[in-house]
Structures are given as structure tokens and as C-alpha cells.
Write a structure and sequence with these properties.
mainly alpha, two-stranded antiparallel ribbon, 56% helix
Length: 514
């Protein structure tokens, strides 16, 4: 790469930042001609890969785990920024959106040649005009890609379907060689990684937020192969002279070598067990068994890190790799405290022990609900967070002190948050509104704001939610033990004990303003 056929070359990695408009136009021209097909991309990778199939399995394993980490990172950041992003993006001009999508695309693709080349694997997903023309297109695509469960880094990357690539991949899986099969999987995950990073860099640039630092690993065997790998030099020379002229051809070759050297100088050695990078003057120790038996580079920042990582590394230590062991050893790195993706208020959002289960039955959480769930997972003693006034500071934590009532509340809350059931959502909303009204606190805690918040989180019409809440209140008023519907199966003795803890006006009605 980047030459994938004898008749054309891919746009240069170094031009992505130096001349982004021309770089993008060159890509658009190639993509419109339909020259970059899955067959051509796979043929190019298999023909130019110089390090053998074992190193390809290892590279696939590293890419597998790093893509999982990136998908988690993008999800956390999108969740925190989405409300601000949605308002600003929908009100922006097409030119503004185009500017920042181009920044996202060119910045990511400028970091490494394989990322630049991966733009050719993305079909219509990474097209400047498509992502910037209609504001809803970008936002809808972003929402579609975000992981359903952000309580942890996934063990398997989320796959982005593409009809042409899917058909060819199925063909390779059925009749391809072992090298073709692993290279095809590598290309598909690399495409996934690029798409996520382009979206992330685009919306962060648009919001004026710092762009993430992209770390590119040093390649074993020296710098990245030059752009002519796999093509006879005489053929390449004649092709370039024919297309560019003799003098321009020499200039291009010289520019390529300078750019490759510059990119190689920025590559880093990263510990296999954690995200620590090798600093100036440092030399990370290698797994000796892998180095001696397989000539495989497995660096570790310390003996302690190597020991902690052994339970994952032992699967491949000193052994030839295959697809099964490549996936099994692709464990996302443990993120050190303080280095997790951060929310806008500076709080870290590392992987959490789930207090609320992941969604099921095809339910897709809104970004607002994801953020709520993330908070509950971070603070497991909190039962719910509600907005009790129009100002952003009017937020109240619901903490139910009596365990039997808390347990019943959480069963229904979790059903609402995992399935999106409107009746479960309404039962939660009714309980909170009922409690504030029965306590005589409706003047302090605005139950309309609570209903509006929950309607937004579950993406349901607020009028429908309020109507269902009022219907539930009528059921409550007929209940012999004065139990709200959410507590209908709770032992009456437990409910009586809960009521005895404080005065409640059981006859007051819930009244919404609208």
C-alpha cells in the first residue's frame, strides 16, 4: 500500500494535513470511480505484508483490543457531550459542519498510512459531503454506533455492516487461504476503528474540545514499508513517469521517503499490559520466550506488569498464533486511575461495576439515559437522579433508605432502563412524583420537570407519560394498602413500616401544570 493496483495510487498520508481539500478531493475521485474494491484491498495487503502470518495474527490481536478501547472511549465522550452537540450541530451551517468533519478525517488519516488507506475500506461511511450535508445524518450515525453497555470496555468490537464488504468477506471465509482470512478480518476492524475515530475527532473539533493524542505503535522490523511495497520498481517508475512526468515522479518519490521517515520517528513503544509508553532513554523488557521462539515483540514496562498480564499472554507465549488465540489474547488494556476518558466536569469515567444491567430485547438507550445509567453505576447507592427545576443545578438524588422498598423500586427501575417499557417508566415517574406530593414538597420539587426529564431520557412524548402517570395514580387511590403501583407486590407489613418512618398525605393528588 498505498498502491493497490498497477493503474493508480492512493492519496498520500502526508497530504491529509498539508492539503486537506485536495487530499479529500483525490479520495472522492477514486471512490466515485469504484476502483477501490474489497478484492483489491485484500490482494494488496496479502501481497505487501512482509512479516509472515504469525505477525499478522499478532497485529490483528492488537488492533482488536485497541478498537474495543476506542469504541468505549467514543461512547463515553459522546454520551457526555451529546446534549450540547445536538443543539449546536442542528443549528450550525453546512459549511461549519463540513469544516470540522474534514478536520476529523484529515487529522486521523494523517497519523499513519494504514489509517489513511483505511478510508478506502469505508465505502460511503466516511464521505465528507454525506456526513456534513444534513445535520441529522451525522448525529443519527453517531447514535447508531454507540455501544449499548458503557459500564465496561467490550471484549469484541462492534461491527459496522457494509453489503459489498460483507459479501466478499463471506466468500473469503468460505474459500480463502488462512492468510486471506486473517487479512480480511484485519481490514474490517481497521475500517471500524477509522470510522469511530473520524466521528469522535469531528464532534470534538466542532465543540472546540481538545483532540485525543493518537499513539502509533512502532512496527517490528524497522519503519513502515514504503508506498511501493510489492510493486517492481521498474514498473512503478514507468507508471509514475507516465502519469506525472519524469521530474515530478522523482519529486514524489523523495517526498514519500521524507514523510515515511517523519511518521516512523513519531511511533511509540507501548507496554503490552497497560497504556504506559516507553520514554526517552527507556528500554522496555521483552517477553524472552516470544522473542526467542517466534521473533515476536511483546514489550512490558515492568516485571510487575508482565506478571499481571500473564493470565492473558500465556495463551500465545512462545507459540504460533491462530485466529482463536489471536482473539482470546486481545484483551483491552487495564486503564490506570486518572487516565480514563473524562467527562466535561473532569471526572473520570473508567469501566464500572454495573449497578444497572445492560439493555436487552433490542432496546437502544438514548444518550441522556446512558448518562443517567453511567451515574448510577458510578454511585451504586443512588437509586435515581431527577431534575426538579428548570435550572441545570436543580438535580436531586433519590436514595430510598428502607431496603424492601428500595429493592422493589430498583426491580422496576432496571426494567425501565433495560427494556424501555413505558409502563415501567411511568411507574418509576409516578412513585417519585407521588412521594414529593405526599411529602408536601411539590412546591420545591417540580414534578413537571421530573416528567419532562424522564420523557427525554426514554424518548417518549411527555404528554403520554404524564397521562399514564395519572392513570396509575387512580389505581393507587383504590389500593387498600395505599401502595403505589410500583410497590403493588410488596408485603403490606413492609409498606406499613416504611410509611411509619415519616408523615405522608396519602390522599393528595398528583397534578401536572399542563
Amino acid at each position: 500500500m498505498p498502491v493497490v493496483a498497477m493503474s493508480f495510487e492512493l492519496p498520500k498520508t502526508q497530504h491529509a494535513l498539508a492539503a486537506p481539500e485536495k487530499w479529500n478531493q483525490d479520495w472522492e475521485t477514486l471512490l466515485k470511480k469504484g476502483l477501490i474494491t474489497p478484492r483489491v484491498c485484500l490482494s494488496d495487503l496479502t501481497n505487501t505484508w512482509r512479516l509472515g502470518i504469525d505477525e499478522m495474527y499478532h497485529s490483528y490481536s492488537v488492533l482488536h483490543s485497541s478498537t474495543c478501547e476506542i469504541q468505549y472511549r467514543v461512547g463515553v465522550r459522546a454520551m457526555h457531550y451529546y446534549e450540547r452537540l445536538e443543539t449546536a450541530w442542528m443549528n450550525s451551517t453546512r459549511q461549519e459542519r463540513r469544516k470540522h468533519v474534514l478536520i476529523g478525517m484529515s487529522t486521523v488519516c494523517s497519523k499513519a498510512r494504514n489509517l489513511n488507506d483505511a478510508r478506502g475500506y469505508c465505502g460511503d461511511y466516511v464521505r465528507l459531503e454525506k456526513l456534513s450535508r444534513e445535520p441529522a445524518t451525522f448525529l443519527d450515525f453517531l447514535k447508531t454506533l454507540i455501544l449499548d453497555d458503557l459500564s465496561k470496555v467490550p471484549g469484541t468490537p462492534r461491527y459496522i455492516p457494509h453489503a459489498e464488504w460483507d459479501r466478499y468477506s463471506a466468500k473469503i471465509e468460505k474459500s480463502g487461504t488462512e492468510m486471506e482470512k486473517i487479512c480480511m478480518r484485519y481490514l474490517i476492524i481497521l475500517r471500524t476503528k477509522l470510522i469511530y475515530m473520524v466521528l469522535e475527532f469531528s464532534f470534538l473539533s466542532f465543540l472546540g474540545e481538545p483532540l485525543p493524542e493518537l499513539t502509533v505503535l512502532k512496527q517490528r522490523g524497522g519503519p513502515e514499508p514504503d508506498d511501493t511495497a510489492g510493486i517492481p520498481l521498474e514498473v512503478l517508475k514507468k507508471m509514475r513517469e507516465l502519469n506525472l512526468g519524469k521530474q515530478q515522479s522523482k519529486k514524489v518519490i523523495k517526498e514519500d521517503k521524507i514523510a515515511q521517515k517523519a511518521r516512523a520517528s513519531k511511533r511509540e513503544v507501548i507496554c503490552t499490559g497497560c497504556p504506559k509508553m516507553q520514554g526517552p532513554g527507556e528500554s522496555f523488557q521483552q517477553c524472552q520466550r516470544c522473542k526467542e521462539r517466534m521473533d515476536r515483540d511483546i514489550p512490558y514496562c515492568s516485571r510487575e506488569c508482565q506478571v499481571n498480564h500473564w493470565k492473558h499472554h500465556k495463551i500465545i507465549c512462545g507459540k504460533p498464533m491462530n485466529l482463536e488465540t489471536a482473539i482470546a489474547s486481545a484483551i483491552p488494556k487495564v486503564t490506570p486511575p486518572g487516565q480514563e476518558p473524562s467527562s466535561p466536569n473532569g471526572e473520570a469515567d473508567g469501566a464500572l461495576s454495573p449497578n444497572v444491567p445492560p439493555p436487552k430485547d433490542g432496546f437502544k438507550r438514548s444518550f441522556a439515559l446512558m448518562k443517567h445509567v453511567q451515574y448510577l453505576n458510578k454511585y451504586p447507592k443512588v437509586d435515581l437522579v431527577v431534575r426538579t427545576g428548570p435550572a441545570s443545578a436543580n438535580v436531586t438524588q433519590i436514595d430510598i433508605p428502607y431496603p424492601p422498598v428500595q429493592s422493589m423500586f430498583r426491580i422496576v427501575r432496571d426494567a425501565a432502563m433495560t427494556t424501555g417499557s413505558l409502563i415501567a417508566v411511568a411507574m418509576v415517574c409516578h412513585y417519585v412524583a407521588w412521594f414529593f406530593v405526599a411529602k408536601g414538597m411539590e412546591g420545591t420539587y417540580d414534578i413537571d420537570c421530573i416528567a419532562e426529564q424522564m420523557a427525554k431520557e426514554w424518548e417518549t412524548p411527555v404528554e403520554e407519560l404524564k397521562r399514564t402517570v395519572l392513570e396509575l395514580h387512580e389505581v393507587y387511590l383504590e389500593e387498600p394498602y395505599n401502595r403505589p403501583p410500583i410497590m403493588s407486590t410488596l408485603d403490606p407489613r413492609h409498606w406499613a413500616a416504611f410509611l411509619a418512618a415519616g408523615p405522608l398525605d396519602m390522599e393528595k393528588r398528583i397534578v401536572f401544570k399542563d
